[in-house]
Structures are given as C-alpha cells and as structure tokens.
Write a structure and sequence with these properties.
Layout lengths: L5 H14 L4 E7 L1 H4 L8 E7 L5 H11 L1 E8 L5 E6 L5 E8 H12 L11 H8 L1 E5 L3 H9 L5 H11 L1 H4 L5 H10 L3 H23 L9 H8 L7 H14 L4 H18 L14
Parallel strand pairs: 2-5
Antiparallel strand pairs: 1-2, 1-6, 3-4, 4-5
Length: about 280
C-alpha cells in the first residue's frame, strides 16, 4: 500500500511537527503520493492551512529538527512555501501555506459562482478533494472536502469552455494567431511560450467536456488519456508532433495545431456546443 512507503512515513513525521503549531488548522498530503503517479522524481506535496502565517522561525526550527541536506525556506515565487531535502531519506519535501479564507474563496469561485479561469480552472477543487488529511484541529477541512464532493456543474463547464476555447484560434489575439506570427518571425521562444498557453487552455476545455477535474501541469496527457472518455483522435501522437515542430519552427506546426483543435471542435459539436460561438456560451 502507498501508506507503507517512505514518502508517506516522512509526511507523517512532518505532520507531527506541525500539529504542535497553534496557527495550523489543517495539514494535508496531495500530489503524486495521492494520485498514484509516483516516479523517481516524485516529492512530497504538503499543504498547511491556517488563518495566520506560521512564523518563519517556527518553520525553520521544524526543518532543523527533522534534518535537511538542503533547505530553501520562505519562498514567495508562487504561493508562500518551504522546500527541503530530507536528511534521512533524500526525499524532497514541498510545503505550501494557504490561508483558510483564501482557499474557501477559490472553491466558492469555482463551485458556487461557476467561474472558469485561463487554464487550470478546477485545480484547487481537485487539490482539496483529493488531499489526504494528516491532521486537523477541528472539522474545517473535512467540511471543505465535503463541499467539494459534488457533481460537475453544467454552468461551470460552459464557463470554462467560454473562457478557454475562443482564445485557442477564434479571436483576433488567439494563441494560434500569435504562434503564426512567431513562426513567420522565426521566434522560437515566443512560439513555445504561446504553445504552453495553448495547451493549458486546450486541456481545460477537454477536461470540462469530460467533466473531469484538472490536476495541474504535471503528467497531464497521461491523466487525460486515463480519465477522459471523450478525446480527439490520435491525441498523443498529435501532441508529440506539435512539440517537435515547436522546438524547430517547422512550418508544419500550424497544420498540426489545426488537427488538434479540429478534433476538440468535433467533441464540442458532439456535446451540442457550436465551436464557432463558444465565446457566448456563458452569456445565457
């Protein structure tokens, strides 16, 4: 069982340290340890929920007690986080600190207000729903998880498609148009930058069509192939060709993107959604 692994044992040890911190309301394990997509590079993704920031001095003391080969604390490049490599096991530990009110707002934005985002629309829903609670001071996080155990709202599905599908190639500033310009300029950096954005919105639409939660950036293709019943023909091969052409500025890239997006449009048609009018889909 995955609960018998070194990763889970280490997560438990870290949890015991944070249990004694007054500011911490809940402590949960997420990421590949829960999804089952573990590989040689897998770390431990831990989430600390509180209404007040856990003091850096407290976090530093915890890492020193546990032992670390190397530690980078108080990182603020994305969310507030601490990362270190465990001295005993060599496993990388990644802790993210989220404010309770803030994560509640993210869940409400998705499940109550039914609002999509530019890529990764349902990632917070996915994270909360699929986390393993290692400690909670009350039933706050359990209650939040229960709120997340709902059917995929039709309004949210339409909102995500309306937000992400038009920008693929329909509107003037679409990713497709920007990639076309970057190819003409032989600007490989710009090409691949916009390709990454195109894929994030493409998969957000694909997951919405299938009413599957978006897991985030890692192993997204394998996840889609495993979880989505409705996928474009030759999805894996098509994406591989696009990535290869994007790396070299191959003129075939636009045709390959067209093939990918044509397949997505066919899925929308089968859902009774006109791919030419998705920008109006959430307008009632």
């Amino acid at each position: 069982m995955w609960t018998d692994t070194l990763h889970f044992s280490l997560a438990r040890r870290v949890s015991e340290q944070f249990k004694a911190v007054a500011e911490v309301e809940a402590f949960a394990l997420g990421g590949s340890q829960i999804s089952g997509s573990i590989d040689n590079h897998s770390d431990i993704d831990l989430y600390v929920y509180s209404n007040e920031i856990v003091p850096l001095s407290t976090r530093r003391s915890i890492v020193e007690q546990l032992g670390a080969i190397k530690a980078d604390l108080n990182l603020t490049f994305w969310d507030l986080g601490d990362e270190w490599i465990d001295l005993e096991t060599g496993i990388e530990v990644d802790i993210i600190y989220w404010n309770q009110a803030w994560i509640e707002e993210q869940i409400e934005y998705t499940l109550i207000n039914h609002q999509g985002k530019m890529g990764y629309s349902t990632c917070f829903w996915y994270t909360v729903l699929n986390s393993k609670i290692l400690f909670e001071r009350s039933d706050w996080f359990s209650t939040l998880q229960k709120r997340c155990r709902v059917s995929y709202p039709e309004e949210l599905k339409h909102s995500i498609i309306a937000k992400n599908h038009p920008v693929l190639r329909s509107v003037i500033p679409s990713y497709y148009s920007q990639i076309q310009k970057s190819i003409d300029r032989y600007d490989l950096i710009s090409t691949n930058h916009r390709l990454a954005s195109l894929f994030s919105s493409f998969f957000d639409v694909l997951f919405a069509i299938n009413e599957v939660l978006n897991p985030g950036e890692k192993k997204v293709l394998n996840y889609a192939l495993a979880k989505c019943q409705k996928i474009p023909t030759n999805l894996e091969g098509n994406i591989e060709s696009i990535m290869q052409s994007g790396a070299t500025g191959n003129a075939l890239l636009l045709d390959q993107i067209d093939e990918l997006l044509d397949g997505l449009d066919r899925l929308l048609d089968e859902e009774g959604i006109d791919p030419r009018r998705t920008i109006l889909l959430d307008k009632g």
